[in-house]
Amino acid sequence: MENKGSDEVEKMKTKFLSAWHNVKYNDDSPTEACYETTEEDSIMGNVEDFRKDFTSRVWLTYREEFPTLPGSTLTSDCGWGCMLRAGQMMLAQALVLHFLGRDWTWSEALTLQPLDTETWTTTKAKRLVASLEASLQTPNRPSHQGAPSLHQAQAPGSAEEADEHLKEMYHRSLVSWFGDSPSAQLGLHRLVRLGLTMGKQAGDWYGPAVVAHILKKAVEEAMDPGLAGITAYVSQDCTVYIADVIDSHKAPGAGQTSASPQSDRPEPSSSRAVIILIPVRLGGEKTNPDYFDFTKSILSLEYCIGIIGGKPKQACYFVGFQDDSLIYMDPHYCQSFVDVSTSDFPLQSYHCPSPKKMPFSKMDPSCTIGFYSRSVQDFERIKQELSKVLQPSAKEKYPAFTFVQGHGKDYDLSAGLTPEKREWPFIRDPRRTVTTAGDFVLL
User: Fold this and answer.
1) Is residue 151 annotated as a catalytic residue, yes or no?
2) How far is CA 415 from CA 209, 246, 361, 394, 427, in A?
3) Is residue 98 annotated as a catalytic residue, yes or no?
4) Over the chain, what is the mean pLDDT?
5) Rounded CA gap, 128 and 126, in Å?
6) Three-state SS for 404?
7) Catalytic residue among 82, 238, 304, 367
8) Which of 231, 260, 374, 421 could disulfide-pair with 417, CB 3.0 to 4.6 Å?
């Protein structure tokens, strides 16, 4: 019986390695992937590396019993706030890159227990979680997982311990910015309040383009000094205006500095990071299959922070892919309110041990793609890499978006429009002709 059980575990390891071999879990190269091997230790290592990386991402889901949302009597976002949560997750990933770096993982990532999968929508999710947990059981854990949590307040000794302590402080602060209270810098209450200025109310459906603009405003208006070194840019009409992004990298004010664990010295305020958000539409009523390879290429890029989209009226956060399926984080899991104002609030509910998959064919064509650019030099590299991905092929006759020299205002495509009218990327100059053919929206 023991041998039979061991064989089942080995089969499960191989299955998961195969399922996720296309998912990037480090930034050694723009297309780094888990590679397939028959060596047991390599299989185990790759699966654990993927799981540690996935679980370290900040997971924002439905919550209930939090303070009343602005302009409403609602104390929960269950059933309507999934796109806002997906947007928060993508924004959180950008902040992880900004403050902690791509190679950072949470020390407790492998200790999380499976979710109560009865609350998920498919029995497949339950089998996925149970199988993954069974296949990854091992008595040996890295020694750093036993490190004391932040609130135990023991002074770190070595330089490595000091660095780990500092990064855990950033981790906890980052999560607190997304808390469900009116004072949280990037929390649901702040996003709903900003949505009111665009004609959206708590309880409404928020599309991926609207959420992109809300996130931009939330980052720009954040008052926490820790967020002074980062801003956001949203493309216009499926076009990234190069001069606008470069200008966004130039922070207003002088004489101020910001620092993060990723730099040995403070960074001058004349330069700040930019989160680039690009709302696109990858087809007509359904996602055009010709864009599947494009989406895979985008998700493989080092600078990509993911895609928010999902199925029609059911949003999620895409973080990777396997063959013809997307791997995503699901916000459709209602959890209780957590008071993040306390110094030792629990972090477990902000990390998900359960990846889910969805066929590309079920992906809604409306989505927003995100990138993180630390500097103007980073942006130049991003632009170069994306220019290769955006080259029209025999299948993709029209790029999903484009880069254009100059500022958006120079083209005056949306002059005179109210903010809510500029939400969706397909605002056209009335002098131009819009043509549609089949599943294509011709740009």
Assistant:
1) no
2) 19, 21, 36, 35, 11
3) no
4) 76
5) 5
6) strand
7) 82
8) 421
